Every structure is written in C-alpha cells, then in structure tokens.
Amino acid sequence: MARKVIVLGEIRDKALRNVSFEAIAAAKVLANGGEVVGILIGEKAANLASDMIAYGADRVVVAENEKFKHYTPDGYAQALMAVIEEEKPEGIVFGHTSLGKDLSPKIAAKLNAGLVSDVTAIEADGDNITFIRPIYSGKAFEKRVVTEGIMLATVRPNNIAPLEKNEERTGKVASISVEIKDLRTIVKDVVRKAAEGVDLSEAKVIIAGGRGVKSAEGFKPLQELAEVLGGAVGASRGACDAGYCDYSMQIGQTGKVVTPDLYIACGISGAIQHLAGMSNSKVIVAINKDPEANIFKVADYGIVGDLFDVVPMLTEEFKKLKVLSF
C-alpha cells in the first residue's frame, strides 16, 4: 500500500541539518512507493526546498513567517498541524534532535496517535513496517509496529543513510499561509555555548575527553586531532562536572546520544552512563592509562598510554596520511 509521508526539514544556521536528509530516506521506506512531502518552517525557508527535493522529497510545502525566526513549540505546532490538515498524510518523520524530541510528542498528542522515538532502522515487508529502536541504554533493541492511525517517528542521526543527492530531480514547491495565534513562548535571542564547528550530534568523527584531560587546557590536543579529522569534540559528564568544558559537549545518558563512524575516547573510564551515549558508534578507539578501564570492554581498538603522549602522535600521523592522500 502506497502512503503519503511528510518529513519536517530542520533548519540551523540557514541550512538544513543532515538528519533532515536521513529522515527523507526513512520516509521513502514508510511511503512504500507513495509520495514523500518535505515540510519547511522558517522565516526564510523556501530557498532550501531544492535541497529536500535533491535528496528524495517529491515536493515541498513551505510555511514562512517572521515568527518562525526561532523555534517555538507553539508556532511550529500550529504550522505543522495546518500542513497535516491539508495533506492528510499516513506518516510523519522527524529527526531525533532537540527540536524533534520536543515537537513530535506535541503533534502526536494533537493527532491522538502513537509515536516511535529514536528509531535506528526500519524494516519493510510489503505493507508491514517495523521500527527498530534501542532500549536499556543501548543494551538491547526492540521492534515496534504501528497498528492503526498515523505513523509518527523520530530517527536518530547517523543511523539511516540518506539517499544519494541528485540535483537534477525536480518537484513542486508550494507555500502555505498560517495564522499564528496565542504564542506562549517568544524567543528574543539565542546565545550558543557550543563550540563552533561540526555539530556533535551529527559528526562522523568524535574525539571525546574525560577526567583524564585534567583541565580545560587538556582539551587542546583533542581539538587539534578533531580539526585534522574533520570531527567534533565531546566530553564525559565527569569532565563537564569538573568544569573542564561546557555541558553542551556532554555525551551520555544525561547528555547527547551519538553514533559516529569513529569515536576516540581519551581519558574516559567508561562509566555506564557514558557508554549509553556512544556505545553504538561504528568504531570505538579507547586511550587510557589504566588497562583495566571499563571503556576497553566496548572498544574495537585500545591504546594503553597517556593521552597527552598518544593524541599528539595520532594527530601527526593523520596529518601525514592527509598529505599522502593528495
């Protein structure tokens, strides 16, 4: 059975986040040959419609309003509900991001529908769709099936590969006028504490530091390695609690959940709370002076040594490899 599925494109810094394209790929599976409609909500969002079409959306609906300059749950919910009422989709896909985790349950409640969150894979067997998501801090996976009503899901970044970009694809772009009423939240300004550079939740390479970095200065070698590899720098809760870095960098059960292609843990002991946020990384490298550290139990590769000796050596070797590759 072909379905109509809508995908919310998430905009950050006037560009679409990569998880938006991953959500389109997920929507293609749910649509089962049906139509995938991209949704853009923003102050000036229409110029990003071509990107959604290039990555697989069949057409795009744009809701533009000066009140959408910053995300607010009330404003976005009103816009998205207006689109839902007009399009009448059988499925809705969000990214499992701060925005998606906030907005999706609000929409599900308005539709009196179920929500499958933090999806890492989708299986299709004819008309039957099965969502796979981690439970118990990633120690196990469960399968969920939506038996009736609209299928709502959020997809975890870096788990469902986006379709290959095809800039020759064409599709209709339409605008929808939304009257925004009774906003209970008004964002005056956004002050970001996160470091500039690659978004931690979408990074393909992450260099993370724990208490073993010893100070804020101790993160400098990690930042240099991340720059060489085109990655992002993260941290354990211990490093954040010690004041070595901002909590926006925290990875773990009470921080961000990440699934990069490469995760290099530097001076991280491997507490269960931290493992819950990174254990599903594709390749894990652990650097620690303690050969009995718990992090080695989940690592694919382990280096027993002082991170302040090992990390600079890795940085230099990767620099050589980059030169040779050119």
From TrEMBL:
Q: Which SUPFAM superfamilies match?
A: Adenine nucleotide alpha hydrolases-like, DHS-like NAD/FAD-binding domain
Q: Give residues annotated as binding FAD.
A: 211, 236-237, 250-254, 267-274, 288
Q: Which InterPro entries match?
A: DHS-like_NAD/FAD-binding_dom (IPR029035), ETF_a/b_N (IPR014730), ETF_a/FixB (IPR001308), ETF_alpha_N (IPR033947), ETF_asu_C (IPR014731), ETF_asu_C_CS (IPR018206), Rossmann-like_a/b/a_fold (IPR014729)
One annotated GO molecular function: electron transfer activity
Task: Give the cofactor binding note.
Answer: Binds 1 FAD per dimer.
Q: Which cofactor does it need?
A: FAD
Q: Which PROSITE patterns match?
A: ETF_ALPHA
Taxonomic superkingdom: Bacteria
Signal peptide (UniProt feature, chain positions): none
Describe the location of the Electron transfer flavoprotein alpha/beta-subunit N-terminal domain by residue ranges: 5-195
Q: Which GO terms describe its biological process?
A: fatty acid beta-oxidation using acyl-CoA dehydrogenase
* Keywords annotated in UniProt: Electron transport, FAD, Flavoprotein, Transport
The family annotation for this protein states: Belongs to the ETF alpha-subunit/FixB family.
Entry-linked PANTHER family: ELECTRON TRANSFER FLAVOPROTEIN ALPHA (PTHR43153), ELECTRON TRANSFER FLAVOPROTEIN SUBUNIT ALPHA, MITOCHONDRIAL (PTHR43153:SF1)
Q: What is this protein called?
A: Electron transfer flavoprotein subunit alpha
**Species:** Aeribacillus pallidus
Q: What is the lineage of its organism?
A: Bacteria, Bacillati, Bacillota, Bacilli, Bacillales
